[in-house]
Amino acid sequence: MKSCAQCRQQNEDDSKFCYQCGNTLAVEPEPPIAAPFIDPDEHLWRQFIGPHADRYLKYFKKFGLGESPKFALTWNWPAFLYVSFLWFLYRKMYVYALVYAVGPMISTYLTGDMTVGLIWSIMAGATANYVYYWHCREQIGEIKKNTSIDPARQDEALKAAGGVQSYVIWIGVVLYILFAITMFKMVQDGPLDGERIPGKPEKTTAPSSV
User: Fold this and answer.
1) For a pLDDT cut of 70, what percent of the chain falls above it?
2) pTM of the full predicted structure?
3) What CA–CA distance (Å, rounded) separates 70 from 143?
4) pLDDT at position 64, please?
5) What span, in angstroms and rounded, lies between the C-alpha atoms of 134 and 128?
6) What is the spatial distance between Cα 44 and Cα 39, in angstroms, rounded to a whole number?
7) Smallest Cα–Cα separation from 158: which of 177, 144, 172, 176?
8) Inter-helix orientation angle 151-161/42-49, to 10°
9) Of 48, 13, 30, the residue nearest 155 (C-alpha)
10) Residue 163 region, left (φ>0) first, then alpha (ψ -120 to 50), else beta?
11) Residue 145 has pLDDT above 80, yes or no
12) Which strand (E) or helix (H) includes residue 34?
């Protein structure tokens, strides 16, 4: 409520004149609109990420871009549908590429369960964005520490350390083609001889003597 300075009459907040004496009421200034927060290092992140930077930055802001990071559940379809270790290799995360290349094979060997690979794929899809966030954060931090690098050389360092490796896509295409050929051949050949279900032996009829 607004109070009239002349007669002390209480008026509605949106009133311009006093209801009782007609005195002009003071108009309170509207609070300034806060400008949206822009991370000063966002251009560094964009240069480091390269392709699909907008999509990944949207995920990264959920973790806390430029703040204390915390895990938030997101989903990365390429890391799930693509051969997982190839996605990490595509994004130059070599340690994780090795883990996801060897891990499923060892797990399958130890358990004898072929579905273990699916569990690894689900794990990659659920955590890939967060792992990639930390990879970008650490690499960009290391590049920024080198204060002797001028802006031009800094851009070169970001592109060299970040971005993608396009040749990995062709490796994935070749692997999928080989997998498809193998599956087609297995279906065409049918089960192995040792796995065939033996049929019932035919009944032999004794020769009848007439």
Assistant:
1) 80
2) 0.70
3) 23
4) 83
5) 10
6) 10
7) 144
8) 40
9) 48
10) left
11) yes
12) none
For the record, the structure tokens of 121 come out as 């794929």
Residue 77 to residues 71, 129, 193, Cα–Cα distance (Å): 18, 10, 39
Whether residue 16 is predicted with pLDDT greater than 90 in this model: the reply is no
Amino acid at 43: H
Give pLDDT tens digits for 27-48: 666 555 544 445 678 999 999 9
Instruction: State the average pLDDT for the chain.
Output: 83
Q: Crossing angle for the helix pair 42-49 and 116-145, nearest 10 degrees?
A: 130
Determine the 3-state secondary structure of 77 from DSSP: helix
- Give alpha helix (H) positions in 162-194: 167-189
Q: What is the mean pLDDT of residues 76-85?
A: 91
Residue 77 has pLDDT above 70, yes or no: yes
CB neighbours of residue 64 within 10 Å? 14
Rounded-to-integer distance, Cα 5 and Cα 25, Å: 8
Please provide residue 135's backbone torsions phi and psi, each rounded to the nearest 5 degrees. Answer: -60, -45
How far is C-alpha 162 from the geometric centre of its chain's CA atoms?
16
Per-residue pLDDT, 153: 86
Phi, psi of 7 (to 5 degrees): -115, 0
93, 136, 44, 52 alpha-carbon torsion, rounded to 10° = 70
